[in-house]
Specification:
It contains 1 helix and 11 strands; from the N terminus they run αβββββββββββ. The protein is mainly beta. Strand 5 and strand 6 form a beta hairpin. The protein is globular.
Length: 171
C-alpha cells in the first residue's frame, strides 16, 4: 500500500458520527420526530435545531460535550411556532423566527438573561432566515417589507452586551 493509501486510511479514522440514536421520549439530540435545521456554535460545543417533538415545532439547544439538551425558558411557548434558529459563537445568543405576533418575526434570545426580544415586530411584512454574528451584535435576515425579498442587517449597537469566541493564546 502506498503512502497515499496510508494517509487516506488514517484520515478516515479521525471522522466519526457523535449523534446518539433516536429515543422515544426526545430527551436527547435525536428523537422520533422531525429534527431539522442544525446550526453549530463557533467552538462546536452547542448545536441549535428545530424539532416537532412534543407535537409542536420548537427550538432546541444541545450541548455536544455534555450530550444533553439545555433548557431554554421563555423561548418556546405553547401554540407558538418557532423556526430557523442560529447561534452566536459562544452560544449565549440565539436568533430564530416566531409567529408570536401573528406574522413571522425575528427574535433574539439571551441565554444569560433568559429573555427573548422581537427584532422585527414593527417591521411591515415578514422576516425569515436569521443569522447572528459571532459576537452577537449583528443579526441579518430576509424581509419582504418592500414587496420583494431583501436582506437587512440589524445592529444591536455598541452598547449591547456581546460575546466572543474563546481566544487561543499566541504561539
Amino acid at each position: 500500500m502506498g503512502l497515499l493509501g496510508i494517509l487516506w486510511i488514517s484520515g478516515c479514522r479521525a471522522r466519526t458520527a457523535i449523534a446518539p440514536p433516536p429515543v422515544p421520549f426526545g430527551a436527547t439530540l435525536n428523537s422520533r420526530a422531525a429534527d431539522q435545521q442544525p446550526r453549530l456554535s463557533y467552538s462546536g460545543q452547542y448545536l441549535v435545531f428545530t424539532s416537532d417533538r412534543r407535537g409542536q415545532q420548537r427550538v432546541f439547544l444541545y450541548d455536544l460535550q455534555r450530550r444533553q439538551l439545555i433548557p431554554l425558558p421563555g423561548l418556546n411557548q405553547q401554540g407558538i411556532f418557532t423556526d430557523q434558529p442560529d447561534i452566536s459563537a459562544d452560544g449565549r445568543y440565539l436568533v430564530y423566527v416566531s409567529e408570536q405576533y401573528g406574522k413571522p418575526d425575528v427574535f433574539l434570545y439571551d441565554r444569560q438573561s433568559l429573555r427573548a426580544e422581537p427584532l422585527t415586530r414593527d417591521l411591515p411584512g415578514e422576516a425569515r432566515h436569521p443569522t447572528i454574528s459571532g459576537n452577537g451584535r449583528f443579526v441579518a435576515y430576509s424581509t419582504n417589507r418592500t414587496g420583494q425579498w431583501d436582506i437587512e442587517v440589524f445592529d444591536r449597537g455598541v452598547e449591547a452586551p456581546t460575546s466572543l469566541p474563546p481566544q487561543t493564546p499566541a504561539p
